[in-house]
Specification:
3 domains, mainly alpha, RLL motif containing protein 1, RTRAF, two-stranded antiparallel ribbon, 267 residues
Length: 267
């Protein structure tokens, strides 16, 4: 994981101090881990460790290693990378936050204090999908009021992750046998979404139809572009439905079972 992504993880959790590039020194390791424990993990409430919040030169070896072992970090020792330890504990903190805040996020989406829809909120179904992707790629969850530019930055980071190695993915995606196909699909969608967003921001999104001698003003051109995008979305949904039907048919035809008593082939 790059320092940029780690900084985003910690920033999402509320850790404000900058993270240095490269390997983390032991003092920075102590500051980050002790903050995460006190703010999110709270393992010491059940299994106290004496002098945990007192930094010494031997803190990593005598205090931290037993602590992260109790959290499930296997084969940790004094030579284990400080950065890998921080990534592990930060991911635990985000998992806890995800479980605690999921209902609050869902309730907050498109709501203001008076209960009316909030114009700059991410739609609930889109937010849920994006956060499932965030969880699978070990990224911070998006907030309901994340700006469009923030969503694009998240997709750009996702693109960087899926273009790397499979270890960047976690959870149900990691165990899927079609890993490369999944990564390719995510990569394609991210690239297409970012490209279209940048074109729209610059006013360069093509209308996609022959206007002949017609001259549209900016509002009319925008409306035509929106219609084109909706039409493309409808076609893609239709194609997905067709693919699902073909997949169901193949389940019956690719592996037929014969029951002679019934005098027919198939399920």
């Amino acid at each position: 994981m790059t320092t940029h992504l780690l900084q985003r993880h910690l920033g999402f959790l509320g850790y404000a101090s900058p993270i240095p590039e490269g390997e983390l020194d032991n003092e920075t390791l102590y500051k980050v881990i002790s903050w995460l424990e006190n703010t999110y993990i709270q393992q010491l409430a059940q299994n106290p460790i004496e002098n945990f919040y007192e930094y010494t030169a031997t803190w990593k070896k005598t205090i931290l290693c037993p602590y992260v072992t109790s959290l499930g970090f296997t084969d940790v020792n004094n030579g284990t990378s400080n950065k890998s330890i921080v990534i592990f504990v930060a991911q635990l903190a985000m998992d806890l936050l995800y479980k605690q805040k999921k209902e609050e996020i869902a309730a907050h989406v498109q709501r203001t204090e008076d209960g009316k829809p909030k114009k700059d909120s991410i739609p609930l179904d889109l937010l849920d999908s994006l956060n499932l992707l965030a969880q699978a790629t070990s990224q911070p969850l998006l907030r309901p009021d994340t700006s469009p530019d923030g969503v694009m930055a998240f997709l750009a980071d996702t693109l960087d992750i899926v273009s790397g190695n499979a270890d960047s993915l976690s959870g149900p995606v990691e165990s899927a046998p079609q890993m490369q196909a999944i990564k390719a699909a995510i990569r394609s969608e991210c690239e297409e979404t970012i490209r279209m967003y940048e074109q729209m921001k610059k006013g360069e999104m093509p209308v996609g139809m022959d206007l002949g001698a017609l001259k549209f003003d900016s509002n009319e051109k925008t409306a035509a572009i929106v219609l084109r995008m909706l039409y493309q979305k409808q076609l893609r949904e239709m194609q997905t439905t067709i693919n699902n039907v073909l997949s169901d048919l193949q389940q019956h035809t690719a592996n037929p079972k014969t029951d002679l008593a019934l005098g027919r082939v198939g399920k």
